[in-house]
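Take a minute with the sequence and fold tokens given here and flag any structure token that looks odd. Thanks in advance.
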Amino acid sequence: MPVTPYDAADLFEWLTTKEDLLLLDVRNDEEFGRFKVEGPYPFDMVNVPYMEFIEHESESVARVPKGKPIKIVCAKEGSAKFVGEILENHGYDNIAYLTKGIVSWGNLLAPIRVNDGNDYDLFQFRRPGKASCSYGLVFGKEMMLFDPSKSIAAYRAFAEERGCAILHTFETHRQADYISGSQPLSQATGAQIMAPEPDFKEARFPYTPAKDGDIYAFTDGGPEVKVMHTPGHTPGSTCYLIDDTYLITGDTVFIYSIGRPDLGGMAEAWSQMLFNTMTGILKPLPESTQVLPGHYMDWKEADENLIFMAPMGEVKKINKDIYGITEEAVFYDFIKSNIRKQPEEYATIREINAGLKEVDEEQQDVLDLGKNECAASQMQKK
């Protein structure tokens, strides 16, 4: 049987339906250690670098178990296909390689509806390769997007399938860990960018400041979107409350942890802002408010439908050691005890997301690859 291709959407489907497979990653040890495929359920995975197949073919082949379909992953596609042919020559069958390589997994968006019984649809676009989430709110023939990634073709196809025009894109803050899609979406569709001015005052593209208390609506009614300024992760960090029920939090509130306030190099000042946000805005929220975070740390945070959403009351219980802090100095001590160096590429990504720097698509993929590091309690000293 010849070696066949598969795409990132196929892989996500297999991992979420518990397909019995072996994932063979043939990237080098460093690349594999930095970023690997993860799913909601356990699956078999081995890492045997491509160069080892070239230099020590028989020994490398022996490290690949038989008996399951083999799905090969590499950096760009060619190495996976080559290794697949080696395995086929050694008697293996049911072999497939990931088209476009690990980057395609990093860019994959997997939408799922999060609300029930309304006259509108709220979708969470899970990005498993980045452990991040963006959102789409659909009413009638219009859609609003929140924190879109650079995979704008996926959002446009999603809107087209539903006959929707993209009305607005909302930024919760100036992202540091991934490249935003708001600017190219605006250029391609005419969608209006809404963004918090404290983070985007240097931006070299047109946007409308998202001001605390502002209300946005669709042309013919539907759910309202309320702007809530929640500074701390960044000075402009903003949440968006949909229909007084669903809170899109960006990097301010996570199901596990809270946003780290040190990425801008002003940990103490931003910690003070975050503490005030936590005590004055987040803790008083109704317990039933549904938190929709911008990131997750692990698939265990998802519910039984693989949606990353939890009521604020549960979030406060999970993070009682954080939300239980009542003194600003103690909160800052918590931040200091967890501070770690941020990835070097974050500074460049911040510039790109303000339109201050342009890089080509290949450079974007390199910068954008890898999981986020935006949660406070996720940090560890090196």
